[in-house]
Write a structure and sequence with these properties.
Helices cover about 15% and strands about 40% of the residues. The chain is mainly β and about 180 residues long.
Length: about 180
Amino acid sequence: MDRDRKKRRNFFDEIFGIDSLEDMDEIFERLSRAMGMNPENLGQHPFVYGFSVTQRSGEEPEIREFGNIPMFERTEMGEMCNLDIRKPLIDVLEAEETLHVIAEIPGIEKENIKLNATDLILDIETINGSPKYSERVELPVKVDPLSARATYKNGVLEVTFKRLESSSRTSINIE
């Protein structure tokens, strides 16, 4: 029976080289070290990581990551440096006359949120708080940045813009 067990290898055996059920603690420790997290803090805060995919007709899919897993950057010396910045979960909803950007940024005071906008970009950044969030949202349509109205309640930020009138299509005569 022991011989049959060695013949059948499962997913965890292939990836980690260990028995998935007997060594689950070791798997979590290896994963947390790979993500730059202290294994001692594993049970204190939940892990949140994901991505959203937006596909508009005729465009490449847009993939956005979000979560509270630490982000890293490689230094000039080749070492990994913890950026301690999170990416919020973002939804962009288009209505006939408005555009709504909804961001989940829990644990932040309203006064610590900084927003900047142009006709095609919304920058969301948190200051003087922990955790820190930062995201540049490319808007799918042109908006009037002066029309922006923002609300923040229970960790959810909603920014509403008025859409700019699209330019009318004109025929061009060739001379």
